[in-house]
Design brief:
The structure holds 2 protein chains of 2 kinds.
Chain A lengths: L1 H28 L8 H14 L10 E3 H9 L2 H4 L16 H7 L9 E5 L8 H12 L5 H30 L6 H10 L2 H7 L5 H20 L4 H15 L7 H12 L5 H22 L12 H18 L1 H6 L1 E2 L4 E2 L2 H26 L9 H25 L12 H13 L4 H32 L1
Antiparallel strand pairs in A: 1-2, 3-4
Helix pairs in contact in A: 1-7, 1-8, 2-6, 6-7, 7-8, 7-10, 7-18, 8-18, 8-19, 10-11, 10-12, 10-17, 12-13, 12-17, 14-17, 16-18, 17-18
Chain B lengths: L1 H20 L2 E4 L2 E3 L20 E6 L5 E10 L17 E7 L4 E7 L5 E8 L5 E12 L6 E8 L6 E9 L7 E3 L2 E3 L2 E3 L1 E5 L2 E4 H9 L8 H39 L1
Antiparallel strand pairs in B: 1-15, 2-14, 3-9, 3-11, 4-8, 4-10, 4-14, 5-10, 6-7, 6-9, 10-13, 11-12
The chains are: A mainly alpha, B alpha+beta.
């Protein structure tokens, strides 16, 4: 038993070490500002670092001159959204614009342009936490500061992988190598790697939501201590200061409260009322600065958009943007790989549903118990349906990466589904084979997709 | 464990040595970038086999060797006008299409002399796709004007194939649809120069550009080497575990 735990600890340590190196390589190789909305998120960090403010006001809702100039004159604009454009490379290690960039005046960091900066509507926690990394290279040029903030995001990615490992440990306590494999599959998911190497408040959202899921499962499955409850509350509070979707955590908690926890009805009602109060306060007082998802479409438009855009998205675009469509969604993986991933993903979903159904039948032999499946499925379903609901109202355009906050649940369900049909004697081999293929896929995406797209 | 460490280091070192001394990468540098400034929807007439699309451009470098044009193919109802596309804010001008759709691509020099003419099968385009047209490299192309023409060769039906245009930034770039000038617009296309081969060192030079001082070439060499060691170590360890799992099962089976 001791030996097995030692092996498991070594394996997760190895996965984290290899993940750290992988993230450093991705941070270094993906070109400057060629990650979704990176200029805007970087600009937010810059504003907080340059002004030492905690919250930004309406006067700050535009890009700075330094970022705009790097975006436009540095050739970044032409690269974005184009599958064919490339830098006009100079000879040697320094690009043409780089020499100019180095002499950018300090005032350009705070001087505003008239281009609106959308992320200012997000709460500030991610951006505030990133400022020490920005300040570490304060005397350097925009490249030094931008890539330093990317490293901060990569650290958050690494933390998320560790949390996913701990969460999978709660769900699969008796299944050898399953928690380590889930952590590896998440870490080496090419799109998760890509997003966690970018400057984006989603990195902190993914980390905190995964931590929320960990405490949620810990409290639902095991005996809960006061410490766990307080930590859960702290995570939710931090989540509210990170991004609006965190409000969904309260919905998940209330449902868990009534269905999975053995508490007196008075306590349940009191906690539910508390959650309702917090969400109301958030809606009323925070909506000015941090707009919450509200109903903005008519019922007809809502259902039309849902049926014609949101639901078909899961057939046409989900796999691409969940596993790997890099740059500004202009650098997809080859179709052959996407087709394989599509087949495996939806086969796993189907197997998960069959096994979950089996777990509800009396004397049915399922991979996980009905309670475990319920605890896994409830937050995943609430999150996924809510994202569809918000999309059908606000039409912001769905992407697979928006589901990363529940990535620990998605991978647990998928792997649970697949393992339910694999005989026990082949399970370890299957897990290692899946892990090896995922690491190879990650390496291929970096050197076979990203490097040729931008540099060859 | 020691074996795995040694294997990972040796394999990474071999790849590094092979990469540095022997590996060459084919690069295709861009001559004209695809400019997507202010693409917007402007109704335009369809192009039948009697008409054509002509785009003038100036080559920025020598050895002009290929052009890639962005085509789109979206389903269209019979009742919809030709200019209507599913993509918002794009200028769409349409070929009428009957599979197999064929078009003639012709490149002219500034004196309207034909440099290259070829037929392209555009039937398999779904959604948006860049279609390449390559020709023998033009050595002294820099600063000279060229015109490429796309002319449909097939009969009309109700399906459309579309071409997309944005604002033209250069005054000399002319777009003509069925002979008529479309003011200040330019097709979405790129032109390439002749492909060449570069070493691993040159590739790292390219990756180093627009990077901070801590990710310049020397650090990149070290980082990529350590990255390879780390990934190979993980892969070998997992493969070893997989083999171990297999052996344990066999032993159990033998015992049983």
């Amino acid at each position: 038993m001791k030996n097995s735990r030692k092996n498991g600890n070594f394996l997760i340590g190895l996965i984290l070490a290899a993940s750290a190196l992988k993230w450093l390589a991705w941070v270094a190789i993906v070109p400057f500002f060629q990650m979704p909305d990176e200029p805007a998120h970087f600009c937010y960090v810059q504003k907080l670092a340059e002004t030492s403010k905690l919250f930004l006001g309406k006067a700050d809702t535009s890009f700075t001159e330094e970022v705009t100039s790097a975006w436009r004159e540095g050739g970044q604009e032409e690269l974005s959204f184009s599958r064919v454009n490339k830098y006009d490379f100079a000879a040697g290690e320094y690009g043409e614009y780089e020499k100019k960039m180095k002499n950018a005046p300090l005032e350009a960091r705070s001087k505003l342009t008239d281009i609106p900066l959308v992320p200012v509507q997000y709460p500030p926690l991610y951006y505030l936490s990133a400022t020490p990394f920005y300040n570490l290279f304060y005397s350097g040029n925009i490249l030094d500061r931008d890539f330093a903030v990317r490293i901060f995001s990569a650290l958050l990615g690494l933390f998320t992988v560790f949390v996913v490992y701990k969460t999978a440990g709660l769900i699969f306590p008796k299944h050898k190598y399953v928690p380590e494999t889930i952590a590896l599959l998440v870490s080496f998911n090419p799109m998760f790697t890509f997003i966690s190497a970018s400057i984006n408040s989603d990195c902190l959202l993914n980390a905190l939501f995964s931590l929320f899921i960990y405490y949620y499962i810990k409290i639902c499955l095991n005996k809960h201590s006061l410490k766990d409850v307080l930590l859960l509350a702290a995570v939710v509070a931090l989540g509210f200061l990170t991004k609006q979707p965190f409000i969904l955590s309260l919905v998940i908690l209330v449902i868990a409260l009534f269905f999975f926890l053995k508490l007196s009805i008075k306590i349940k009602l009191a906690i539910a009322a508390g959650c309702l109060l917090v969400s109301t306060v958030a809606f009323v007082y925070l909506s000015q600065n941090f707009p919450m998802p509200v109903i903005s479409s008519s019922a007809g438009q809502f259902f039309k958009h849902m049926l014609l855009k949101s639901v078909p998205f899961f057939y046409f675009d989900f796999i691409g943007s969940f596993f790997g469509n890099f740059g500004w969604l202009d650098t997809p993986m080859p179709n052959v790989i996407l087709n394989i991933l599509f087949t495996v993903f939806y086969a796993a979903v189907l197997l998960f549903l069959v096994d979950a159904f089996r777990s509800f039948k009396k004397n049915g032999e399922a991979f996980l118990s009905a309670k475990q499946y319920m605890i896994l499925a409830v937050p995943a379903i609430i999150y996924i349906l809510s994202v569809i609901y918000i999309e059908s109202n606000t039409k912001f355009g769905l992407q697979g990466r928006y589901f990363f906050p529940v990535i620990s649940l998605i991978y647990s369900c998928l792997l649970g589904g697949l393992l339910s049909v694999i005989p026990e004697k082949f399970r370890a081999r299957f897990l290692f084979a899946a892990a090896i293929l995922t690491v190879l896929l990650n390496m291929y995406c970096l050197f076979g997709v990203i490097v040729p797209k931008y540099y060859l | 464990m020691k074996k795995i460490i040694i294997y990972s280091i040796v394999l990474s070192a071999l790849i590094a040595v092979f990469g540095v001394y022997f590996l060459r990468f084919k690069v295709t540098d861009i001559d004209n970038l695809e400019t997507r400034n202010s693409v917007q929807r402007i109704p335009y007439e369809e192009i039948s086999s009697a008409g054509s699309i002509k785009q003038t451009f100036r080559a920025k470098k020598d050895n002009l060797a290929a052009i890639e044009v962005l085509f789109g193919n979206f389903a269209r109802k019979k009742s919809e006008p030709a200019s209507l596309g599913l993509y918002k804010n794009l200028l769409l001008s349409a070929f009428k299409k009957q599979p197999p759709l064929k078009a003639a691509f012709t490149l002219y020099d500034e004196n309207s002399a034909v440099i290259s003419c070829q037929e392209a099968d555009l039937s398999k385009i779904k959604g948006l796709r860049h279609v390449p047209f390559s020709f023998p490299p033009i050595e002294n192309a820099k600063d000279k004007r060229y015109v490429f023409e796309i002319k449909p060769l097939t009969q009309e039906t109700f399906q459309v194939l579309t071409l997309i245009a944005g604002d033209s930034l250069n005054s000399g770039d002319e777009l003509r649809i069925n002979g008529k000038l479309v003011e200040k617009k330019k097709l979405l296309f790129v032109s390439y120069v002749k492909p060449r081969f570069i070493s691993c060192d040159n590739l790292l030079d390219r990756i180093s550009q627009n990077k901070p001082f801590y990710f310049k070439k020397k650090s990149l060499y070290v980082l990529i080497f350590i990255y390879l060691v780390g990934q190979f170590f993980l892969l070998f360890y997992l493969a070893n575990k997989m083999r171990g799992a297999e052996k344990r099962k066999t032993k159990k089976a033998v015992k049983a």
